[in-house]
Amino acid sequence: MNQSLPFVHELAPKLLTRELSSREVTQFFLDRIEKLQPSIRAFISWDSELALSEADKIDRRRASGESLSPLAGIPIAIKDILCTTDSPTTCGSRILEQYRSPYDAHLVSKLREAGLVILGKTNLDEFAMGGSTETGFQGPAYNPWDLARTCGGSSGGSAASVAAAMAPIAIGTDTGGSIRQPAAFCGVCGLKPTYGRVSRYGLIAYASSLDQAGPFGHTISDLAMVMQVTAGHDPRDSTSLNVPVDDYTSAISKPLEGARIGVIREQIDGEGLDAEVRQAILAAIDEYRRMGCKIIDIALPHTKYSIATYYIIAPCEASSNLSRYDGAHFGFRAALNSKPVAAGASKQNSPLVEMMSQTRSQGFGPEVRRRIMLGTYTLSEGYFDAYYLKALKVRRLIRQDYDAAFEKVDVLLGPTTPTPPFRLGEKVNDPVQMYLEDLFTVGANLAGIPAISLPIGKTKSGLPIGMQLQGPALSESRLLQIANDYHRAIDYRPMLPPIAAD
Ligand code: GLN
After folding, report:
1. CATH architecture label of 8-257+453-501
2. 30 Cβ neighbours under 8 A, 6+ residues apart
3. pTM: predicted TM-score of the whole model, two decimal places
């Protein structure tokens, strides 16, 4: 297979006409994984034999004349936080290092039903807590555009795998920006769908009211094709939306017809935005204006509280969700070296409590422990009202800002991240600096709305820059269309970083 074909829109038609087999395509990506994994570390696990045997099944079905979905035979990489029965699901945590799920995540079943071939499970921050893919027990992933820099996080492995063409498309999850920020840092497209649009069944929970899974791809049309397969109601997730799924793939080709684009002024004029990112965003606004869109300035006055709100709510939910990892139910259990406790000893000193406490302190890394402690503290009596309840109220105000904005505009435009990808090691020991990276992305999770990041250019030193578009709940079609039209207008061509191009 020819090197210039790692993109879905070029592969899918050739698979359909059987000019290429799924085995050939899968082998091509497996070879690239073998070659690039040592320098990029985008994957935690992959199984070449399994992937090839799945590919063969699709080839046989196609040869027998069965009509298959447009993505049948295309390989895909999955963030290692979605349950799969045929490979480990580690969440990048020692505590789940040996865990095998007895069931597939809903989203994984949907991909399998549509004939996609799972290549492997991608690197992430431990339990998706982080913004740099540095906190997992397996070590960091590296940005294919500059190996000294972060590929973003927490779905950094998924973004890097697509950027380096180790996979044509990938799945990530986004609780506060973990699809959009790595997409921006790696120069690919990423979509966080509306909360509830894609089932969370089998997506290991970090913060349940914010988590949502979505696709990475080189083009907006790749995102639309994956959404077509993964969106939809699932009775096993009580927050799954029972509303019809749009035709995303045909929506993106419709003409824009005078879209109203809201420009989030405080994000563009505010301090802390890198000058080259600002310049690229201003150029994109000009382009939309040239395309006949109406540009309207919008204020979201409560966004200044969004980081504080998110970093109260997410750790609270995490502390509750992660209480299940106790050494008794899942995965890792610490070996006890303490002496047996005398009869009549207090409960706190019992071997069971000792085992649980050792398991959790050895099994979780420092960032996860920090969040569990923060969340437990915030939810405790006396602090609950002052912090958690207050954060819920501010969350409502943030949502109301968006509601008011979407009465005036179709989408909101701004940068995805304040800076281009930062250096590995630069922020991992400084949580506040790391958390500030999420400034522009957490709002969409708090409000439950869809948001997309698309590449719009590069800095002088060749690092990718991303633009974020946010829309009202269930406006994925419109978002994809507005993003796609921009790429069409600038004649955007997906690019491979030098490390992946030879
Ligand atoms: N960086 C954010 C955090 O650390 C977002 C993570 C995510 O979206 N999973 O929580």
Report:
1. Alpha-Beta Complex (3.90)
2. 46, 48, 51, 52, 119
3. 0.97
